[in-house]
Design a protein that fits this description.
By secondary structure, the chain is an alpha/beta fold. It has helices spanning 3-15, 18-24, 29-43, 59-82, 102-107, 128-133, 196-207, 221-231, 239-244, 274-287, 289-292, and strands spanning 48-49, 56-57, 88-93, 117-122, 139-144, 152-167, 177-178, 187-191, 213-218, 235-238, 250-255, 260-268. The strands form 3 sheets. Strands 3, 4, 5, 6, 7, 10, 11 and 12 form an 8-stranded mixed beta sheet that branches. Strands 1-2 form a two-stranded antiparallel sheet. Strands 8-9 form a two-stranded parallel ribbon. α1 crosses α4 (59-82) and α2 packs across α3. The longest helix is centred in the first third of the chain and has 24 residues, at 59-82.
């Protein structure tokens, strides 16, 4: 069997929609439909009930959904056992990973000892889940603002929040906490429009009841920070990123409309190769048994 058929099946089963599944897999809907019909012919059963507006699984499809992840995992394990030189690990990371503990966690991982070729690939935050689902990354360090998707397993690395960044000379710079509404008449500098931070900043201003006047957009957090320092405008950053810049010309303030987010290490429940499991366990060890232990805390999801 072509195992890519199983990956396609699991994507359709999760999305319950051929169009959305095809977009995730970067293929046309017609090509994905042909693959699923081929899989059904090969197994001799119907896997999908296509009669309704939403695709549902037949009894046979539900059974395959239970067995397919283990089949894919066994194949990965077999390949790594037969040819250890194939052992590689692709980790998706944020462009601002240096402002978090990600580098320390990766540096603590003995990749050479395990003969793993480790590569770090930067993605915009909102592109990281697709990179994991599509197999372009084996693990991702991802900033998650809501519930972790059900098809991911995760470990919480740290918590963060949006923060208001002002020039140190600003009259409000000495405040510990403010309402973003107080800055409705200020000019703002945002990161580029294609970033998650841009969208989150707009949403925070909307919740505060105003449309921000955006004077500049910058291509990097360092550039935006320098512009805030020099122009007297305000900006919205993630708190740990803003503090990590260690710029004495900037003040970092909590604002009431901000909501917490989590930096998580995430892996796919459908695909979890041995190299990824080794880094996963290394991160758990680095975090400490108490923090990494699983229990009733919804922040953690055991493999």
């Amino acid at each position: 069997m072509d195992l890519s058929l199983l990956r396609g099946f699991l994507t359709v089963a999760r999305c319950r929609n051929f169009h959305r599944a095809a977009e995730e897999l970067y293929m046309t809907q017609s090509a994905l439909t042909k693959q699923m019909k081929r899989l059904e012919r090969e197994l001799g059963v119907l896997l999908f009930d296509r009669s309704g507006r939403q695709v549902t699984l037949t009894e046979a499809g539900e059974t395959l959904q239970q067995y397919a992840p283990a089949l894919l995992q066994d194949y990965e394990t077999m390949c790594e056992a037969v040819n250890p030189s194939r052992l590689q690990l692709r980790v998706g990371v944020l462009p601002v990973m240096a402002f978090y503990s990600i580098l320390d966690l990766i540096a603590a991982f003995p990749a050479e000892q395990h003969q793993i070729r480790l590569s770090l690939q930067e993605y915009p935050n909102d592109a990281l889940p697709d990179a994991l689902r599509q197999g372009r990354a084996d693990l991702i360090f991802w900033r998650c603002s809501g519930a972790v998707p059900k098809d991911f397993r995760s470990l919480c690395i740290c918590e963060d929040e949006l923060a208001l960044v002002l020039p140190a000379s600003h009259p409000m710079a000495g405040q510990q906490s403010v309402s973003l509404r107080e800055f409705a008449e200020e000019s703002f500098i945002f990161l580029g429009q294609n970033t998650q931070l841009y969208r989150d900043s707009l949403e925070a201003c909307r919740l505060a009841g105003f449309q921000p006047r955006i004077l500049f957009t910058g291509s990097s957090v360092e550039n935006v920070g320098q512009l805030v320092h020099r122009t007297g405008c305000a900006a919205i950053f993630m708190r740990q990123v803003a503090l990590g810049m260690r710029d004495p010309g900037l003040a970092v303030l909590h604002f009431e409309e901000s909501s917490p987010v989590r930096l998580v290490l995430a892996a796919s429940k459908e695909r979890f190769p041995r190299s990824a499991r080794l880094l996963w366990e290394s991160v758990r060890t680095s975090l400490g048994q108490e923090k990494a232990a699983e229990g009733n805390d919804p922040k953690y999801s055991d493999p």
